[in-house]
Design brief:
The protein is 41% helix and 25% strand. By secondary structure, it is of the alpha+beta class. A five-stranded mixed beta sheet has the order 1-2-3-5-4, with helices on both faces. A hairpin with a 6-residue loop joins strand 2 (144-149) and strand 3. The longest helix has 36 residues, at 75-110. The chain is globular. The mean pLDDT is 89.
Length: 338
């Protein structure tokens, strides 16, 4: 969710208040189907739960289903449309995961040394191409453009790109603007339509631009994560997490505060989620304190390290988990260091 600063942040702040008391029965039905209470709605809930389900209608079929949810008259129709969006989002996630793994293998095998990855892969659903490009960018720490056939007699290609923070994607791709039939975007994300025969020239132009940038800035591809603060086990409290909520709504330009949790040992590690891609564990501090931690989407990468029960440092953020009238503290892990 983009919440830069100034009036945009104010609009979101009061928009969330309006959403908590919305009279739109369709939104209420969707929230119920997801186990959410609109009374406790926050920017992250909107960005990571409500919006993906509404967007899934257009990604996997027709956005008309989302409109039907918002305009449904009877409770039965509202429940049916909410269930349809939940199913569309399930399909979106399954297609996204399959495409991501296939594209990751292809990128590592064919473009492992590339500084700017332009990956052509068949069969990636147009509605999820941007999400997949973003996940590849995060995993490989390189700008990634995912190119697919446009379906127009195989004469054209569609490209969807996502970039790391240090690289202005628009500036790099703009060097090949003469190759594009359509082109638009910004520093972090771009899209284009081009004829197939221009693809290799675009790869050459992008590679040249990145080589130049890398020579000028040798640390360009280093992962630099600077926390807003450092905590030990006993510092992580529900009161602190609730106090940080006063800074909401969070988003681009007002990022959620990040912390380095030091001197902890992982205990009671287990997988969670229907696909087992997430991890739950306890971070035990030297003072005997324990913090409940959740790591989303990276079970395969970090499970072995966590199960070793060796001291680690955790980078992440504090979250207040509200469920069925109960309130608890969680540390949402973004990265792990030995």
């Amino acid at each position: 969710m983009d919440i830069p600063v100034d009036e945009n942040r104010t609009l979101v702040k009061y928009g969330l208040k309006a959403l908590k008391r919305t009279g739109r029965a369709g939104l209420q039905a969707l929230a119920r189907s997801l186990g959410l209470s609109l009374e406790d709605i926050r920017s992250e809930t909107v960005a990571y739960q409500l919006v993906p389900h509404i967007n899934a209608a257009g990604r996997m079929g027709s956005p008309y289903r989302a409109l039907q949810l918002l305009t449904a008259g009877s409770r039965q129709e509202q429940e049916e449309m909410a269930s349809a969006l939940v199913e569309a989002n399930r399909q979106r996630r399954a297609a996204q995961e399959e495409a991501y793994r296939r594209c990751l293998r292809a990128a590592e095998e064919r473009h492992g040394e590339d500084l700017f990855i332009i990956l052509r892969e068949e069969g990636v659903h147009e509605g999820i191409a941007g999400i997949v490009a973003g996940k590849l960018k995060d995993r490989l720490n390189r700008p990634v453009v995912l190119v697919t056939d446009s379906g127009e007699e195989n004469a054209y290609l569609k490209g969807t790109g996502r970039s790391i923070g240090q690289v202005n994607l628009y500036e790099v791709l703009n060097r090949g603007r003469h190759l594009f039939e359509k082109f638009g975007g910004h520093a972090g994300a771009c899209g284009f339509l081009m004829r197939q025969e221009g693809l290799e020239e675009l790869r050459t132009l992008a590679a040249s631009a990145m080589e130049q940038r890398w020579r000028e800035q040798p640390d360009l591809f280093q992962r630099i994560r600077v926390p807003d603060g450092v905590l030990s086990g006993g510092d992580v409290t529900l009161a602190l997490a609730e106090g940080l909520e006063a800074l909401e709504p969070f988003g681009f330009g007002n990022e959620k505060p990040s912390f380095l949790l030091t001197g902890t040992v992982p205990r009671r590690v287990s997988r969670m989620g229907g696909d087992g891609k997430h991890l739950r564990f306890q971070a035990e501090g030297g003072d005997g304190s324990r913090v409940s931690c959740v790591l989303f989407g990276e079970a395969d990468c970090f499970e072995e390290r966590l199960r070793a029960e060796e001291p680690v440092e955790l980078m992440g953020s504090l979250a207040v988990n509200r469920w069925n009238g109960r309130t608890s503290l969680q540390f949402i892990v973004r990265d792990i260091a030995e």
